[in-house]
Amino acid sequence: MSRTFAILGASFAFLGVALGAFGAHALAAHFAANPELEPTFETAARYQMYHALALFIVAWLAERCDSRLIRWSGWLFTLGIVLFSGSLYILSIFNVRIMGAVAPLGGVCFLLGWACIAWMLWREKSDA
What we know:
- By secondary structure, this protein is mainly alpha-helical.
- It has one domain (2-122).
- It contains 5 helices and no strands.
- The longest helix has 27 residues, at 38-64.
- The model has no long low-confidence stretch (mean pLDDT 96).
């Protein structure tokens, strides 16, 4: 399972860098015409990268302790990236305003993922 989360982390980090470059270059004219959308795109890329790195933390923790909470956190971070960053990318590129309503669901997934890690570490007796 730790390998799965490391692969997901690397894949989302790769996509975060690629989408960040895409936003900075290919979407420059789009954001010049719609400047209010650029910060939304940047937020999507930033949170995607934070949680791609969090997936590496999950992979590392999963190697050291067998906990359902760690696995849950990895899947919650993955779902959070898809829902939060994905909806913000769609909103900022295609100006689909309804996608703004999806982002908080992804944010809740991020929060629950971090809560799972905190709870596991608090309960764990080992040197996790």
